[in-house]
Design brief:
heterodimer; A: 114 residues; mainly beta; 7-stranded mixed sheet; 4-stranded antiparallel sheet; 0% helix; B: 112 residues; 5-stranded antiparallel sheet; 5-stranded mixed sheet
């Protein structure tokens, strides 16, 4: 069964450093998403991406965050200057058609900011 | 703004029991609703997807129902097994948007 692949599975970074989280969505999917889950809290929407542009973003997704699809297979989330409160599990998801087939999530990247 | 509530927050049952997990949401203008399973420290595994025009979906021992007008969905697990132990998350879309809004989940423990 097709999978969404995320790398790395765990990343530790120092406060103020830039991090890039990487995702390989399912190959024929057109819609891409990032969600995050702070330990013990709900999964929260960050951003959706379609046709090489952001289609929707949450209030969490401020100027410190950016997304990119640098080639035909990868989808990345960049955090420019990490804060302690950015520590969370970050999930990438993809969908082939928003209404009918649902979302497939990756296994996540655990980001720890120290 | 979509708000999602899942009841109960935690549930412990003996193996073999049939059980029902409840989800309520405030905005009925959804595209669809998904139920996910999350094991500790792991990702989200999709269990069932119900479109807004559907009333229920079934997969193996799982059955999910949707009553959009009352803002409710239930996940029914038949003949529970220890391997079903996990947190179950309900996630409808938000009205007019494709984004998912998650509940806090129900943590299920099935005892052998």
């Amino acid at each position: 069964e097709p999978e969404v692949t995320q790398t790395p599975s765990h990343q530790v970074t120092q406060m103020g450093q830039e991090v890039i989280l990487r995702c390989v969505p399912i190959s024929n999917h057109l819609y891409f998403y990032w969600y995050r889950q702070i330990l013990g809290q709900k999964v929260e929407f960050l951003v959706s991406f379609y046709n090489n542009e952001i289609s929707e973003k949450s209030e969490i997704f401020d100027d410190q965050f950016s997304v990119e699809r640098p080639d035909g297979s990868n989808f990345t989330l960049k955090i420019r200057s990490t804060k302690l409160e950015d520590s969370a599990m970050y999930f990438c998801a993809s969908s082939d058609y928003r209404d009918f087939y649902g979302y497939t999530f990756g296994s996540g990247t655990r980001l720890t900011v120290v | 703004k979509q708000e999602v509530t899942q009841i109960p927050a935690a549930l412990s049952v003996p193996e073999g029991e049939n059980l029902v997990l409840n989800c309520s949401f405030t905005d009925s203008a959804i595209y669809n609703l998904q139920w996910f399973r999350q094991d500790p420290g792991k990702g989200l595994t999709s269990l069932l997807l119900i479109q807004s025009s559907q009333r229920e979906q079934t997969s193996g021992r799982l059955n999910a129902s949707l009553d959009k007008s009352s803002g409710r969905s239930t996940l029914y697990i038949a003949a529970s097994q220890p391997g079903d132990s996990a947190t179950y998350l309900c996630a409808p879309t938000e009205g007019g948007s494709e984004k998912l809004v998650f509940g806090k989940g129900t943590k299920l423990t099935v005892n052998p």
